[in-house]
Design brief:
By secondary structure, the chain is an alpha/beta fold. It is built from 6 helices and 10 strands. The chain has a 3-stranded mixed beta sheet with strand order 4-1-7, covered by helices on one side. Strands 2-8-6 form a 3-stranded mixed beta sheet. Strands 3-5 form a two-stranded antiparallel ribbon. A hairpin with a 2-residue loop joins strand 9 and strand 10. The two termini are about 30 Å apart.
């Protein structure tokens, strides 16, 4: 079967997580082609194999992928519409199951809850929030307040509502379809980490590239 005048469009992802030790072209992104037979053949091309005890990360250049495609399908044209370098991570799912995973989950939840609570209390103590409420109450009512009142209650409710609205979540439900601030920051953080790992691999000469 002739592969001349056949174009494969490849949109590679910046970061790919796999549960298999074998990496194929189909794993690194989206592909489309007018010839389904050639497309299936290209998707089945093996690019890399993660060995036990070795690094679980590998960077592969898009040029290397195009070279491998050309070896299997000479004459085919590859149009790259994605990333120039792909960071591939092998994740052993079985290693993250069991009691250790639950211990990690409880620990993170514990630190997040009490860490946030301590931060809020330390901030309120630093600005003297009780003195502020006392002064405001005295200015409005004309006499000092006796214990906690409507100001403290309104502030506590408003603080909780503000946190819920800001983080766009109530339990496991999303208030709106917009991404939350944490999700946005996590995406930015992931992109920065991926770029850093790719650049490090390039500097250390560990990227799989054309000769």
């Amino acid at each position: 079967m002739s592969t001349n005048n056949v174009t494969i469009y490849l949109k590679a992802e910046q970061n790919v997580e796999l549960q298999s030790q074998d990496v194929y072209v189909k794993d690194i992104g989206s592909l489309t082609c007018s010839d389904p037979h050639i497309l299936a053949k290209v998707k089945a091309i093996k690019l890399y194999h993660f060995k036990e005890g070795k690094s679980r990360r590998q960077v592969i250049s898009i040029l290397k992928i195009i070279e491998e495609i050309a070896k299997v399908c000479p004459g085919v044209t590859v149009e790259s519409l994605g990333e120039p370098d792909i960071l591939i991570e092998y994740i052993n799912v079985d290693r993250h199951k069991g009691l250790v995973q639950w211990i990690k989950l409880v620990f993170v939840a514990f630190v997040s809850f009490f860490g946030t609570a301590f931060t809020i209390m330390a901030f309120h103590n630093d600005i003297g929030i009780n003195d502020v409420f006392t002064k405001v109450y005295e200015m409005v009512m004309g006499y000092p307040g006796d214990g906690y009142g409507i100001l403290e209650l309104s502030y506590s409710v408003g603080l909780a509502v503000g946190i819920i609205v800001f983080f766009n979540h109530i339990g496991g439900r999303r208030i709106t379809k917009d991404p939350t601030p944490i999700e946005v920051e996590m995406r930015v953080y992931e992109q920065d980490v991926n770029k850093s790992l790719i650049e490090t691999a390039e500097r250390e000469g560990k990227i799989i590239d054309v000769s």
